[in-house]
Specification:
The protein is α/β, with parallel strands linked by helices. The chain contains 7 helices and 7 strands. It folds into 2 domains: 1-16 and 175-198, no CATH class; 20-174, Alpha/beta knot. Strand 1 (21-26), helix 2 and strand 2 form a beta-alpha-beta unit.
Length: 198
């Protein structure tokens, strides 16, 4: 059974979760990169991570690399892009694909205070074409050197840091509690009971 101190820690984390900001891991090949994205998502207060793997097996997420954060995240799995994007749009999200396209927005120009999902693609192929076609916009991190882009997990951390900065400036990171938070807390307490402290 969780101690009062541990339950208080769960509540403190949960009341700052950002349900209307999500990431999509789109066929990221290296499981370490996928795990690092989960770690950044948790670190910046996201709750939902979507995995899109239609062409490859879903990755085995490393606990040490993800800092054991995966059990505290809602991880949704999708095997086709249409269902993924339709689900995100039904959730009220604008979908942004990280993509080196001519029309791509500088990630700092995006209003991340609005409900948003950002897609991070395969290390070599980028985002799935079907995702790019249905995304609301492309985004890019401008580079100052010879490399075209950062490692995918670094890109995730950079963009999520900007989203966090914007939301903090807008006063959107104040603690909140609802029936949804309460249901998640009960689930976390159950997981903690059966899996032990990680």
């Amino acid at each position: 059974m969780a101690t009062e101190e541990r339950e208080a820690r769960m509540r403190a984390v949960l009341e700052r979760r950002q349900f209307d900001l999500q990431v999509v891991v789109d066929h990221v090949h290296d499981p370490h990169n996928a795990a690092a994205i989960l770690r950044s998502a948790d670190g910046f207060g996201l709750h939902t991570v979507n995995l899109l793997y239609a062409r490859e097996e879903f990755p085995e997420i490393s606990n040490p690399v993800s800092a054991y954060t995966k059990k505290w995240l809602e991880i949704r799995r999708f095997e086709d892009a249409d269902t993924l994007v339709s689900t995100l749009h039904a959730d009220g999200m604008r979908v942004y694909a990280t993509n080196l396209a001519g029309d791509a927005l500088d990630f700092r120009e995006v209003d991340w205070t609005q409900p948003s999902a950002v897609v991070f693609g395969n290390e070599h192929r980028g985002c799935t074409p079907e995702v790019i076609e249905r995304a609301d916009a492309n985004v890019v991190i401008p580079m100052q050197g010879f490399a075209q882009s950062f490692n995918v997990s670094v890109s995730a951390a950079i963009i999520l840091a900007e989203a966090h900065r914007q939301r903090a400036a807008a006063g959107l990171l104040t603690p909140a509690w609802s029936e949804r938070h309460e249901a998640i807390l009960r689930d976390w307490l159950r997981r903690d009971l059966y899996r032990g402290h990680e």
